[in-house]
Specification:
This protein is of the alpha+beta class. It has a single domain, classed as Winged helix-like DNA-binding domain superfamily/Winged helix DNA-binding domain (Arc Repressor Mutant, subunit A), CATH 1.10.10.10. 67% of the residues lie in helices and 13% in strands. It has 4 helices and 3 strands, in the order αβααββα. A 3-stranded antiparallel β-sheet has the order 1-3-2. α1 packs across α4. It is globular, with a radius of gyration of 16 Å.
């Protein structure tokens, strides 16, 4: 497998869990799917819509997000928000991330 393909494969694996955490953090304030895609992209998390929307539904089914429809405008939008359980998980995963980052930094410093 060429180097670029191998890198892309492992990068995808690495990013998979970070997208979940990024969504939980961003959605502490209610937002709808397209705006979430834009916000993720601005922060360096490029995600396709056909990946994000099933993820949002899965997180909602797991009780980590709640949603409400906003029908005030001409185009109804489903707004998502991190639930209490989602906030607790985001906080725990953030601590885990910080610990892993420190561990990686110490490994890099050894070389």
């Amino acid at each position: 497998m060429p180097g670029d393909e191998l890198h892309a494969l492992h990068q995808q694996e690495l990013r998979r869990g970070t997208i979940v955490l990024a969504c939980l953090l961003i959605l502490k304030r209610p937002n709808y799917g397209y705006a979430l895609l834009d916000r993720l992209d601005k922060h360096g998390f490029t995600v396709e819509a056909n990946t994000l929307y099933p993820l949002l539904r899965r997180l909602e089914k797991q009780g980590l997000l709640t949603s409400d429809w906003n029908t005030d405008e001409s185009r109804p939008r489903k707004f998502y928000r991190t639930s209490r359980a989602g906030t607790a998980l985001a906080d725990a995963l953030s601590r885990d991330w910080d610990e892993m980052y420190s561990a990686f930094q110490s490994l890099k410093d050894e070389t």
